Amino acid sequence: MTAPGATGRRPTTARLAGIGVAAAAVAVALYVAGRLHTPDYTFSLFGRVGLDALMLKSTLASIALGVAALQVLLALWMYRKLPLAGSPPRPVRLAHRITGFALFALTVPIALHCLIAYGVQLTSIRVAVHSLAGCFFYGAFVAKILLVQSQRLPGWALPVAGGALAVVVVVLWYTSVLWYYNGYRLPGT
User: Fold this and answer.
1) Measured between alpha carbons, how far is 174 from 189 in angstroms, rounded to an integer?
2) DSSP letters for 33-89
3) What are the residue boundaries of the structural domains of the chain, listed by start?
4) Are the CB atoms for 181 and 54 separated by under 8 Å?
5) pLDDT for 109-151, tens place per residue?
6) Is the pTM of this model over 0.85?
7) What CA–CA distance (Å, rounded) separates 115 from 95?
8) Can you give the three-state secondary structure of 93-106, one letter per residue?
């Protein structure tokens, strides 16, 4: 005999575990692919190579950071956690989904360039954090999409996944764009 409510927890726990496994599988697959890949430093991004590619990636990543900030604001509004904003109108959910898709689409060329041109490198703390955060980003993205599509999961799960995505975007921006704009140094180093 099972305790009352135990049958409801097991499927929820199993769904959360399955989503976690899927997210981890994506992150690990990207990590393994990046470690096994031989970097091609001449690979171009929209026809740009070398420093021109870094400048273009920095611009695109800065736009992605702005879109991620908009995503957070829209999510806070949807969950009625944005002070003084009132109840969100219907288009807020649609805007959140559209900007989420735009954020994902914007990151794909940046990530492909990173993966093909550099692979996953662990040569310094900054590079290792950036490489691992890039792998984690797509795993967290998969988790968020699966959580959005799932029913009857705890209310904290989706905000945690969305928050993790936002934090990872900031970490990726900090370890690449800020490093680039700051003369190939992180602030304070």
Assistant:
1) 13
2) HHHHSPP-TT--BTTB-HHHHHHHHHHHHHHHHHHHHHHHHHHHHHTT-STT--SPP
3) 8-181
4) no
5) 999 999 999 999 999 999 999 999 999 999 999 999 999 988 7
6) yes
7) 30
8) HHHHHHHHHHHHHH
